[in-house]
Amino acid sequence: MTENDQERQGTAKSEADHLTKRVALYIAFHYLLPVLLVVTLALALFAIFFWWWWNVQSIGVSREAALSWFSVAVSVVIINSILLVFLNREAKGTLRQIEKSSSDHYEELQRYIREKLSPSIHVLNGKKAIRQEATVLLEGAPEEKVDQARYITYFGAASLGPTPEEELAFKEGEVEDVDNHPAVTFKGAFYKALAAPEPVRVDRYLQLFSLEAFRDRSESQRSDYIRWLTKEIGLLKTHRWYTLWDSKRALPFGSTRSTIVTRQGFLDIIGTSKDDKLSGVLVRGPEIAKLIHDRTIDFLEAAKKKENLPRDIGQCQPERLLKLENDYKKRIEEIHKTKRAEERRGAGQ
Prior knowledge:
The protein is an alpha+beta fold. The chain has helices at residues 3-59, 63-115, 127-140, 164-171, 182-194, 211-216, 219-238, 286-300, 318-348, and strands at residues 120-125, 150-155, 200-206, 242-246, 257-261, 265-270, 279-284, 311-313. It has two domains: 3-113; 120-340, Endonuclease, Chain A (2-Layer Sandwich). The chain is built from nine helices and eight strands. Helix 1 runs antiparallel to helix 2, helix 3 (127-140) runs parallel beside helix 5 (182-194) and helix 7 packs antiparallel against helix 9. The longest helix has 57 residues, at 3-59.
């Protein structure tokens, strides 16, 4: 459940709480109040009994009559106490049922909106909400009941798995429930789709850095890129249904926009995984998802120059990425050497 859903559920629960209070007031007014009045009357009779007991001689009332009034008062108190306990138990049970029913109806309505209403649009704010909805999208891909191939397509990096900082926090025990962390559940959904009994084709369209573009990036982004590239090499070696497409028309690594598309919907993401203010739009609906998927690929494949067409880096070509990784690392060494030489020249002056 995303933060937006939790907020809406909180609103629904507050309305349910308001309804619960009204029901409680109704029960109190129609049942508890009469019981309390009778108990008050019984206590009053109990008080009168003591007054009579001490003044029985002066008012001429026999002790037998006083004891009778006392017995009546005690009986009323006991009976009403039993009724009050029973009524309190029934009232609590009724209120719990009302609260559970309102919560169940809200979740059922949310599920109906997700599954039946098409298209539906959800605005997402925050990294947690983005990861949660992306996880739901990926988890649904292997379960799609379609005659054609199932797929998950990335346009851009859309790296929503654990960041290096989060992985370090996991190792040092700073996060209590690691297995249910949104980054971990997203990563699990991704690998689960790749290992599904019914094949799910996963394609990623991205513009790989040229050596010149790589040189112009910041040091932290170069490190992130090398780390991402190493992960991609591992995916290409071990998963036959995963394909990386190098396209000059696609978004490069580190872009502020990326998209994940399945047959049931697409998630457009604004920002990177390191951005805590990540936001996006989730659109559910097979027709619009198919339109976004097909038209984007058509655009990428419409390049007139051969070198601008998407290049399939599949399972048979991870060595090309490995060569690129080595070239990038060499370029990093050259950059560091140049930087050190400039620092020495500056110190000599």
